[in-house]
Amino acid sequence: MNSSLESSIKYIKTDILVIGAGGAGIRAAIEAKKSGLEVFLLGKEVLGCAHTGMAMGGMNAAMVAPATPEFHAQITIEGGYYINNYKMVKVFAEEMPARIHDLESYGVIFDRLDSGEFYTWAGPKQKYPLNVCVGDYTGREMMQGLVDEARKLKIKYTDEFFISKLLTVKGKIIGAMGINIRNAQIVVFQTKSVILASGGAGRMYKVTTNAMSNTGDGYAMALDAGAELIDMEMVQFHPTGMANTPSTLGVLVTEKTRAHGGILRNIKGERFMSKYYPVEMELAKRDEVSRSIYTEVAAGLGTKNGSVYLHVDHWTKEKILEIIPDVYEQYKNTGVDISKEPMEIYPSMHHMMGGIKVDEWCRSSIPGLFAAGEVTRNVHGANRLGGNSIAEGQVFGRRSGISAAKFAKKVKNISLPKDQIEKEQTRIFSFINRKAGVTPHVVEDKLKQVMWDKVGIFRDEKRLLEAKKAIAKLKIEAKIMKTRTTLKERNRDLQDCLEIENMLITAESIVDAAILRKESRGAHSRTDYPKTKKEWEKNISIKIVNEKLITEIVDVVR
Length: 558
Description:
Elements: H1 3-7, E1 9-13, E2 16-19, H2 23-33, E3 39-42, E4 59-60, H3 69-79, H4 86-105, E5 120-121, E6 131-132, H5 138-152, E7 156-158, E8 161-169, E9 172-180, E10 186-190, E11 193-196, H6 217-225, E12 229-230, E13 235-242, H7 256-259, E14 263-265, H8 273-276, H9 286-298, E15 308-311, H10 317-323, H11 325-332, E16 343-352, E17 355-357, E18 369-371, E19 376-377, H12 389-408, H13 418-433, H14 440-454, H15 461-478, H16 492-516, E20 539-545, E21 548-554
Parallel strand pairs: 1-10, 2-3, 2-11, 3-7, 11-18, 17-19
Antiparallel strand pairs: 4-6, 5-6, 8-9, 9-10, 12-17, 12-20, 13-16, 14-15, 15-16, 20-21
Helix pairs in contact: 2-5, 2-12, 3-4, 4-12, 6-16, 14-15, 14-16, 15-16
């Protein structure tokens, strides 16, 4: 290795490296720490500020009869249109009540009735209430409990850190490398196992509920390391994102609003869900409500902002402040009093149901690589039920910590691949050293528009192929991305360049899988193949073979 390059690198040795400090990542680190091994937790953001904290409504768990784990598993599989990993769904439903009690032991105070029983509410397709919550800010309170427990256990944590590459030797994970965002210091981690909990990829869409940190890093790194992705075409749009001001476009309005009696109306005042789902009405599945809203607006029945109305102005103000206090404040800050006037809402990209292929113990196809949370494909299938995301992060975060520790105890550190390190360092700093080219924001804006226009709520062959062509051009354009300054300290452009390369690979994966699935199923709705077909009760696998993405139809794990 070039000696000048090597001298600028910081090396850290640990037993277990956890990449991502959201709900799943912190829970993984907590469990791994119990093994007695050394654990290092990394996050892009300040500890406690991950996307998990933006979750509002609650988390599903069979805490109160007549709800049972069997019922929870059943509606998860039905809601996922029967392409979920059945084994993982069963584990998830059975273990979730214990994970609620874990969170209570960390200091999370869930809403309870005067009797002391958990307050639970029923989301769409829930015959029996499963949703356990803390007001409409469950994610924020859960994160506080997890952070407090991590600090109590003295887990090593570094924030504002960007992992750009997983290091492998002979098909095994032996480390990772990236940059300290504050000073652009290159850091290489030598480790016995890695847990990826880096979240989703919502920022590749023009309108999203996602935090800025959700840029598909984990999907891209896993593919590069040789891992397999599953169900990447399944991108969930939440039906109720804010739409009354440009600055709040896409901000989440919790499903709790509709579950407790919120009413959707078009510009004519019609309760339009009666046309599409007359039985379920506003409590239809997320994909169903999103398509209904899209159709109303496309038919010219939306507001001047291209939205529809969500009413809770028939509630008392006391009820609003009790059930959805955060939503009330969100709109109040834009000059709207939802106790007196309706909210303007429109679907917003919300969640990735697909991701890294893992088993029930969070093992990927690559030895030493484990994963948990939204970066994985596990329980959701073709449509995620509200309340299942931050919940499954707790179940499989814990399991990934156990599994990674068990693996780490059996292996020894392997010498780091100097050629990979040097190549990656050169790639990272090429964005700063390049004399001419395009800024990352040019590429990012184009990608967001392509994904929103052509890989959205409704899809068809023509637009998907156009998207594939556009992404290919953007990948070429990305090769000449450059930062606007040569300064290394807190160079946001440098981070953007790295993130955009990951977003492009992730976007390509979504498009390729969407082209292959020639039917409509859950979140994947094709106007040219509108029917759900039994023969497509399959998963779509994606790998990199000879530097090309290869898609394959595979059987569902039952």
